[in-house]
Write a structure and sequence with these properties.
Blueprint: E1 26-32, H1 42-52, E2 57-63, H2 75-86, H3 105-113, E3 128-131, E4 137-141, H4 151-159
Parallel strand pairs: 1-2
Antiparallel strand pairs: 1-3, 3-4
């Protein structure tokens, strides 16, 4: 079975994201954009990360500029805006593509595991995927679904036997 730790991704700040550290954890993967109207979800994602991280939740942001050019900045700018404007401390990957021929392998896998309203394609920024401790993609949430609205699903996934704390 394929799982998140089978992939590689570059960290926004350089180097590799430690995806091996997601084994046994519940992971929320989100394609982000700092200039998107849904960027107001960053604080909610950060709150989940801070409050549920000790129980085994990992939030991973994957910036993408594929929807309305809403993530035009370079890595340093994205990191600065995320930290300064939204207080983000959860891990962010380097900017990727989530649709088309240049789709990052993680997103190819996620979209194959959980199709959305328009098939496999990502419709917009802040589409979220919840991955269980066993590596199974449990759910896919549309952009408009706020982080606080999926907290119950995350808590249920964290309560599964064998989940490891951070």
């Amino acid at each position: 079975m394929t799982k998140l730790s089978d992939f590689q991704a570059e960290a926004l700040t350089g180097g590799e994201l430690d995806l091996a550290a997601t084994d046994g954890k519940v992971v929320l993967v989100v394609n982000t954009a700092t200039e998107c109207g849904f960027a107001t979800q960053f604080p909610g994602l950060e709150q989940l990360w801070k409050e549920l991280g000790p129980q085994g939740l990992v939030v991973l942001g994957f910036p993408s500029n594929q929807f309305g050019g809403q993530e035009p900045g370079e890595s340093e700018q994205i990191a600065e805006v995320c930290e300064r404007n939204f207080g983000v401390s959860f891990p962010l990957a380097a900017k990727i593509e989530v649709n088309g021929s240049g789709t990052h392998p993680i997103y190819r896998w996620l979209k194959n595991e959980k199709k959305g309203m328009i098939g496999g394609a990502i419709k917009w920024n802040f589409t979220k995927f919840l991955i269980g401790r066993d590596g199974t993609v449990l759910e896919r949430y549309a952009s408009a679904k706020k982080p606080e609205d999926i907290r119950g699903d995350i808590e249920r996934a964290l309560a599964e036997p064998g989940a490891t704390a951070a």
